[in-house]
């Protein structure tokens, strides 16, 4: 598991999507948690480089202390499902999960509790009829 900077930070890892989709998910998180850096880091498994076909992980850290209610209740469009892994203390992870559920269709694919943190895997899905 990844160790966020503080108990209020949640590490968010997106897989199975391109940069535009990752940007849409991170923009939705930035709207809900405006102090988040919005930084996206692309990591490629299997070493360095940009070889085609290598999985990409888009990462950001969300600071949940500045959570604000979503002003746009409309779902954010996605062109394909996206796997999201959240790592952090239980309550902040739940807050990020709630905000993602307000912006996207969400399927819960499991939770792994730790001594001081929680790992949650979600799949964000396109919302039909949006």
From TrEMBL:
Domain of life where this protein originates: Bacteria
Name recorded for this polypeptide: Uncharacterized protein
